């Protein structure tokens, strides 16, 4: 995997039209993105004119102290929240130019999500949970492809189990299968290993990485865990609503030390 890391510059500096559809650029790009909360009297600037690019086919961890803007970044990048100012592009499409209906469709088709809490439907089986986004999109999933994917994730003998019958690591692998089945351009992961023990966490991250890279997709993962971050190609550190550093080919010790200097060690 050859990935060029140029997190703070973009290939498209300068003025641009209102809506952009350009698939030659990074998988995810933020240009001068600001997110403020509150009213005039008491405003918090969660993201402060952030310009950042996540290259296609890369796996990037986002770290930083509590309140540094990681969740705000993920939410704005994934179109779950709208920036106060600035532009977000995912797979060459400007999210900030889409209305709610188009944004929902774009999210469903081009993005996958993996959360700490797995977010599986308890009454559905493993297969039913995985194909749910397909069915919601009115598409008919290819069962052979679903079974192959679940098999690759080590769940071949769990197809008809319900989430409560699975371990935490297995549940997260179901969530990964669900996130990648639609072949999204980018998978956003929010503390995906936060509820797992060390071994399950490592397995889940390796499977996430292998599964996503098989089709050249991109992962953006927010985490507090230096060991999890060390599975990524690079770590972007946030402080006070801005990216302040990038470590390429990270190891857990370097990540923990850098985090500690930002006041985010645990
Ligand atoms: N809905 C909101 N209303 C008001 N302020 C908010 C809101 N969401 C976030 N903030 C503020 O924005 C800043 C950035 O928050 P954010 O959740 O992005 O940080 P974070 O790095 O993800 O923190 P943590 O690691 O604790 O989850 C914080 O000061 C937070 O209090």
From TrEMBL:
Superkingdom to which the source organism belongs: Bacteria
State any GO CC term.
plasma membrane
Instruction: Domain (ABC transporter): give its ranges.
Output: 28-265
Annotated region described as Disordered, given as residue ranges: 1-24
**Which CDD domains does the record match to this protein?**
ABC_MJ0796_LolCDE_FtsE (cd03255)
Under SUPFAM superfamilies, the record lists:
P-loop containing nucleoside triphosphate hydrolases
**What Gene3D superfamilies does the record point to?**
P-loop containing nucleotide triphosphate hydrolases
Q: Does the keyword Ribosomal protein apply?
A: no
Pfam family name, one: ABC_tran
Molecular function terms in GO for this entry?
ATP binding; ATP hydrolysis activity; transmembrane transporter activity
Keyword Transmembrane present in the record's keywords: the answer is no
Keywords in alphabetical order? ATP-binding, Nucleotide-binding, Transport
Q: This protein is called what?
A: ABC transporter
Q: Which organism is it from?
A: Actinocatenispora rupis
């Amino acid at each position: 995997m050859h990935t060029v890391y140029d997190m703070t510059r973009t290939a498209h500096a300068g003025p641009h039209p209102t809506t952009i559809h350009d698939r030659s650029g990074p998988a995810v790009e933020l240009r001068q993105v600001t997110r403020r909360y509150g009213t005039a009297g008491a405003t918090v600037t969660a993201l402060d004119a952030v310009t950042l690019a996540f290259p296609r086919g890369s796996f990037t961890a986002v770290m930083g102290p509590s309140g540094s803007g990681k969740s705000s970044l993920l939410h704005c990048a994934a179109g779950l929240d709208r920036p106060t100012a600035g532009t977000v592009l995912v797979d060459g499409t400007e999210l900030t130019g889409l209305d709610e209906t188009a944004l929902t469709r774009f999210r469903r088709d081009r993005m996958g999500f993996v959360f700490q809490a797995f977010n599986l439907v308890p009454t559905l089986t493993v297969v039913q949970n995985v194909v749910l986004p397909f069915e919601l999109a009115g598409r008919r999933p290819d069962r052979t492809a679903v079974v192959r994917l679940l098999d690759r994730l080590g769940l071949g003998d769990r197809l008809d189990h319900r989430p409560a019958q699975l371990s935490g690591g297995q549940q997260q692998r179901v969530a990964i299968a669900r996130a990648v089945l639609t072949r999204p351009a980018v998978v956003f992961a929010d503390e995906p290993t936060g509820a797992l023990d060390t071994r399950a966490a490592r397995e889940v991250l390796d499977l996430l990485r292998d599964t996503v890279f098989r089709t050249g997709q991109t992962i953006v993962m927010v985490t507090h865990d230096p060991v999890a971050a060390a599975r990524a190609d690079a770590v972007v550190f946030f402080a006070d609503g801005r990216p302040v550093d990038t470590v390429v080919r990270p190891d857990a010790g370097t990540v923990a030390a850098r985090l500690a200097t930002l006041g985010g060690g645990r």
